[in-house]
Amino acid sequence: AMSSLEKQEPVINLINRFRCKNGSYKYIEWRSQPAGHLIYAAARDITKRLQYRSELEKMVNISEDFLQMNHEELDYQGITDELLELSGAKFAAFNIYDTDGSKFATVALSGHRPSIDKITKLLNINILGRTWPHDPVRAKKIKDATITRFPSMKD
């Protein structure tokens, strides 16, 4: 970058990584234009843009992996773990409905394991592998959505 500026050539899209006091990192993109002995420069924080790009790339990779699998080898737990990480949710469940939609089974569950164990113990049920009957209240919340977010495990 410095050799370009010395040659009076602009420097575009130079990215620096800075560590913050809290240990996180910020990515700053610079654009510089030399003018004789002066350098005019502007910088912007592109941290969120890079995070979004990384998340999008991860979603594409997960989607490609998912589409490559056949029905017998689907890794529901792996898919649920990835969805949990991408969504930023506290918990994620993968449910499969039967052919007529009258019931569904929870085939994978991800989240804070001690909390899941506590809920399982309090409710005295095993959520994973359990078949659930059709619930009109839940059906109204879910509607036609492929993915549904609930504010808490109670919902």
Present the secondary structure layout.
Layout: H1 2-6, E1 11-19, E2 25-35, E3 38-45, H2 47-68, H3 76-87, E4 91-97, E5 103-111, H4 113-123, E6 131-133, H5 136-142
Antiparallel strand pairs: 1-2, 2-3, 4-5, 5-6
Describe the model.
This protein has 155 residues and is an alpha+beta fold. Helices cover 37% and strands 30% of the residues. The strands form 2 sheets. Strands 1-2-3 form a 3-stranded antiparallel sheet. A 3-stranded antiparallel sheet has the order 4-5-6. The chain is elongated. The mean pLDDT is 85.
Mind telling me the C-alpha Rg? Answer: 24 Å
Question: For the terminal residues, how far apart are their CA atoms?
Answer: 54 Å
Biggest sheet, spatial arrangement of strands: 1-2-3
Content of β-strand? 25-35%
Uncertain segments? none
Number of DSSP helical runs: 5
Number of strand elements: 6
Dominant shape: elongated
**Major sheet details:** 3 strands, antiparallel
Average pLDDT for all residues: 85
SSE order, one letter for each helix or strand: HEEEHHEEHEH
Oligomer: single chain
Structural class: alpha+beta
What share of residues is helical? 25-40%
Task: Note the main attributes of this structure.
155 residues; alpha+beta; three-stranded antiparallel sheet; 5 helices; 6 strands; 37% helix; elongated
TL;DR?
Helices cover 37% and strands 30% of the residues.
